[in-house]
Every structure is written in structure tokens, then in C-alpha cells.
Design brief:
Structural class: mainly alpha
Radius of gyration: 12 Å
Distance between the termini: 11 Å
Strand content: under 5%
Length: 68
């Protein structure tokens, strides 16, 4: 069994969350909670959050992620 990141947990959303909720959670993490490196956050954490958002915000990538 492959160990992979749980993008839903990273963005703190439910698996059935609509795109608006995913986008709002992403923006909250990056801006308000200051995860973005330009706001004093850690580059590694921002990279993981960006990776999760890139997959969950794209319908095709999200469907493939959910199938795995």
C-alpha cells in the first residue's frame, strides 16, 4: 500500500466539499493563518498546501485522486 498525503486533511475540508469551500480554506490557510512564505510562513508547508489545492481544485485531478 502506497503512503500518500491526504489532501482533504491538509486543506481541512470534507471529501465532498465544493470548490468554493476548498478555495476559501486554501486562502484562509495561506493568508489569514500566515502559511505563505511572504507572510512569514514555512516554504515546505506552503508547498504542500499548494500541491493539495492544485489537485482538489481541478475536477479531473480530483476525480483521479479520489479513485486511488
Amino acid at each position: 500500500m502506497e503512503n500518500r498525503r491526504n489532501y482533504y486533511r491538509i486543506l481541512q475540508v470534507q471529501p465532498g466539499a465544493p470548490l468554493e469551500i476548498i478555495r476559501a480554506s486554501y486562502r484562509t490557510l495561506m493568508q489569514r493563518l500566515r502559511v505563505h512564505p511572504d507572510l512569514g510562513g514555512d516554504h515546505w508547508n506552503a508547498t504542500i498546501i499548494n500541491e493539495a489545492y492544485a489537485v482538489l481544485a481541478d475536477a479531473a485531478k480530483r476525480a483521479e485522486y479520489d479513485r486511488e
